[in-house]
Amino acid sequence: MHMAQTYPELHKACHFYPAIDNHAHPILAEQHRDRFEFEGLISEAQGSALTVDAVHTLACKRAVPQLGTILNIRNPTWDSIKAYRKRLSYPDLCNLFMHSTVTRIQCMLLDDGLGGVEEFAEGYAQHDRFTTSPTKRIVRVEIVAEGILKSLLKVHQDDAPILQPFNTALKASLIDSANDINVVGFKSIACYRTGLDVAPEAASEEFLLASLAEVSKTYRETATIRLAHKALNDHIVRMALEVSGECGKPVQFHTGLGDNDITLNRSSPSFLQPVIKAFPNTPFVLLHSSYPFTREAGYLAAVYSNVFLDFGEVFPFVSGSGQKEIIRQVLELCPTNKILWSTDGHWWPESFYLGSIQARQALYHVLSESVALGEILENDAVIIVQNALFHNANKLYNLSLEPDMAIFERNERD
């Protein structure tokens, strides 16, 4: 049975409906296009685990023919793709893999606080050339806090109290972001720094001062700041949750899938349950399918009205069969009006293409199965897809967009 012919409306919705990419990062600037190992396109690994092992994953082997088709390479290999893309002009490479006629992405929400963005990547507004709606920002709160601490420590002596000026400056910065029409949400990387077991109650001033003393000492010795102090990090997250609850702009949390800087057993979204309960007016977005804790994330989204589940990054990092299973797990319990799609695209334009085409293929496969089994009607499946790709994010982030049906119709004709 050819599913595309059997369920034509579902096929059209999955493959051509305009999408809002609710979590991604900037691409590299042209002069830095080869700054990072290209294998990072298909793996979060580092070192030899990336450059030697990642090419032997099913995720990589699946990506090769998909990239080769766009580049028009016969019998492509990973090495031939790397060589060919080097010969292309960077504008051509970006258009091949990022233009809305290829990805069907109408709008991108970019977290531009990723390490290396300021030095090596393009500004968020420069991504507008690939879409038909303006790019918006997601503000990474730990990076904002680090910048404020650097500024304070440059002008304060070792024994000067900085907790109160820090609190004042951070609150003001978060409110400014909340009032910025180009900012649609916040992002926390607590998962990477101290784990997702964010304390819902305020820390004692003693613990906060001790954390700040450690930060100050490190800064005086190395001129760097990396916040990884439990009391202080939790304090920063709570401040962001408070502002979010007041302004209605969601807070995204990295959950699950990441590089080896994460402590895996502390990256489950289940650790967030106490703070989710403590901030009922704050919209929480659990990123990256929370893989491999997808069912736990779906449970939280099902029982808390302020929790939403992003199914991203697993495209293309997980095998095709794994992606389908992840979507099945998302749909086991999570209300379909609370699921959001993203690419987690970053650095390489190819990441946006693979994130789009693979997600669309997986959605069609899983939902056509449900229709074939008589579990849902085709029209219900179409609505689920349209909401997951566009309408849920449009509502949650208050984007006030209309789906650009020209993208849909143009791609459908092609």
Automatic annotation (TrEMBL):
Residue stretches making up the Amidohydrolase-related domain: 234-362
A molecular function GO annotation: hydrolase activity
Record protein name field: Amidohydrolase-domain-containing protein
Organism: Mycena albidolilacea
